[in-house]
Design goal:
Arc Repressor Mutant, subunit A; 2 domains; single chain
């Protein structure tokens, strides 16, 4: 069962030290992640309280130091439906003991600017092997795109999406750009980009809408059409699915 957005009672520093000692007796193992400049690291207990974070994650959310970050939950950092989704993934990892690898997810920083990330989550165990939480690495999705070979057969299709994502883009046309059948194109796209062509296009449209919502006074109807959505209703539905909040709520929060 997914918990609601009520914040659990935050345990004290003694609780955190005890858990970290069970994982790493020297207490320094997580400091390694401070040297990963392009990756965000986190560790949480079974209830979802943050135990540890590297400097990149603190910077992402605008926290000065780890001490002020420890003990909070995703529900205090993110729109509710996004926090519910992340909590569901955490519970799955802890229940099964199996990692979740290369999840394509959206995170929102303190300024409301969304980013597209690849998340990997693993169960966190004590020295006896009992699962006591979850830890993970969050990497910018742009790193994946930037590292694709220039001569990859889907590269031309990706460039076409980049230039025309606000227009109607049938998968058949994108497959033609890549010189592949639709089935081959969709399979290779998912292999290299960790998502489907349709989901990739929708996320690009949502990010464009976020910029407009923060920076312009355009109506939702205008934004829907300019960003490539069928109408205002589909825009609002897809925006909420991706961002965990409605376009109007997003605008009120981050203008």
């Amino acid at each position: 069962m997914i918990p609601d957005n009520r914040t659990p009672k935050v345990p004290g520093e003694e609780w955190r030290a005890e858990l970290l000692a069970a994982i790493a007796p020297d207490g320094q193992v997580f400091r390694l992640f401070d040297h990963l400049k392009d990756a965000l690291f986190f560790a949480k207990d079974r209830e979802g309280h943050l135990l540890a974070a590297n400097q990149a994650l603190l910077d992402h959310y605008g926290y000065r130091d780890e001490a002020s970050f420890v003990g909070i939950t995703d529900f205090e950092l993110l729109p509710h439906s996004l926090a519910v989704k992340f909590r569901r993934d955490d519970l799955q990892v802890m229940a099964t003991g199996r990692p979740l690898v290369d999840l394509v997810e959206i995170f929102v920083n303190r300024h409301g600017i969304p980013g597209w990330f690849l998340t990997t989550k693993l169960p966190m165990r004590d020295r006896e092997g009992a699962i006591i939480g979850v830890m993970g690495i969050i990497q910018p999705y742009s790193n994946l795109r930037a590292n694709l070979p220039e001569d990859l057969d889907i590269s031309r299709a990706l460039n076409h999406i980049q230039e025309h994502f606000t227009e109607e883009l049938p998968v058949t046309r994108l497959a033609e750009c890549a010189g592949l059948s639709v089935r081959q194109f969709e399979r290779r796209f998912r292999k290299h980009l960790k998502t489907t062509p349709q989901a990739f296009i929708i996320k690009m449209r949502v990010f464009r809408a976020c910029d407009e919502l923060r920076e312009s006074n355009k109506s939702l109807g205008e934004l829907a059409l300019e960003c490539g959505f069928y109408d205002q209703s589909s825009f609002s539905r897809l925006f909420r699915k991706q961002m965990g909040t409605t376009p109007l709520e997003y605008r009120k929060t981050f203008r």
